[in-house]
Amino acid sequence: MDKYVTRSKIGHPSSSSTHSSTALTIASKIQSKIFISDVDLESLEADPGIRKPIAEYNSNIRDDIRRYYILKKPCQPKDHKFPKTKFGKKMRQFFPDWFNGRKWLEYSITKDAAFCLCCYLFKNECEIRGYVIDVAFTKTDYRAWNKATERFRAHSKKEKSESRRRLSASVDVARFLLKLGLSFRGHDESRSSLNRGIFLELLQWYGDINENVGSIILEKAPKNEMMCSPSIQKDIVDSCAKETIKSILEDLDGDYFGILVNESKDVSHKEQMTLVLRYVNKEGEVIERFVGIIHLTLVALAKKDSNVDDFFCLVTNVLNIVGASFKRMDLLWKHQAEQLEELLILGEVHTGRGLNQECGLQRPGDTRWGSHCRTLDNLIVLFPSVIHVLEFTGCECPNYTYRLIAKTLMDTIKKFDFAFMLHLMWKVLMMTN
């Protein structure tokens, strides 16, 4: 109990005064830990030696302070008379020429020391993630003017080197996944997730077995340069695709080639067209290289319109009723033959080899883009015969459900709306077929 309660002694001031003094002590301690939440940007110190650390400001205004210092540019007093300091037997001083080409370098007049603006602005965020920051330009003052040029060069090169290693690690992981055709993203990529996706998990494994890489990637990298965001992953994939196509074209060397095209439908029910380049190389070997996938969105986008979607649904129902039995298909074929004979007698159609071929009602396939066009084309040609079959089904079919459906479909396809949509979609698909 003595840990939490202070004993009051006889003869001392009253408990109220004790409590008030204790409250003042606690308040002073709390006050010392309160972050600065409101500040006048114009009153911020320009001298890096006397600035308040960025961590002392409230997190809600840190970005405003960073933006202010970036727009204000680093503190580089080139006209200042720099004092000399003795190193060994020689006097050394800061030279204003060192500012040239180093936008990150700052000089404190009050402390006669060099600082790094970038480290000051982002050091706190990087330290939270375990990223190692050079304290010589942030917490401690750098005054070793006898080795300044080498130290400045090493400080700037370190950032570039780590950035390149970070990017190289992401590229290596992306190339491995592309080679095996594996997905990159995960369902939950948060830090608490047990499976963050193949890309991040493989990158983490890469860092675990390589200490030089593991110390600079993912959470240990600067927040604005982690090189593993979805946009960075897409850029890496696009770059790999361009380099691959460039390599294929160099191997082709302007010779003859063929393009293999295949239409299919992926698991997300999106129509797509696959392109493969086929050629013979200089060694006489037949080479087939996958070029890419083109998503065929015309039919998919058209079906998003309710009128178009209803139209294709109606066409499918008509084809199902007409082609439901061999008897109806026989009736369709006989009626079409009679129509053709009548047109030949009247001279409205020409005769010759390859003309007036038999056509059927092919159902549009989801995996074949051009099948929609062929279906509508045949439906226009066989439209009178389709009406005849629906009339027969509506009167002679023993199943009352089919009779009702046939009569309803026949009344619907005779309307202007169906005829207009039939010819409209046929013309649109003919232009892209």
Keywords for this structure?
two-stranded antiparallel ribbon; 4 domains; 10% strand; three-stranded antiparallel beta sheet
Written account of the structure:
The protein has 14 helices and seven strands. With 433 residues, it is mostly helical. It has four domains: 103 residues, no CATH class; 78 residues, no CATH class; 44 residues, no CATH class; 131 residues, no CATH class. The strands form three sheets. Strands 5-6-7 form a three-stranded antiparallel β-sheet, with helices on one face. Helix 4 crosses helix 5. The longest helix has 33 residues. The N and C termini lie far apart (88 Å).
Oligomeric state, counting identical vs distinct chains: single chain
Low-pLDDT ranges:
1-6, 8-20, 23-35, 128-132
Number of strands: 7
Rounded to an integer, what's the Rg over CA atoms?
A: 39 Å
The number of distinct helices, counting runs of at least 4 residues, comes to 14
Shape: elongated
Sheet of most strands: 3 strands, antiparallel
Q: What would you call the structural class?
A: mainly alpha
List the secondary-structure elements in sequence, H or E: HHEEEEHHHHHEEEHHHHHHH
**Percent helix:** 40-55%
Count the domains: 4
Strand content: 5-15%
Major sheet strand order: 5-6-7
- Look at the structure and give the mean pLDDT: 75
Terminal-residue CA separation: 88 Å
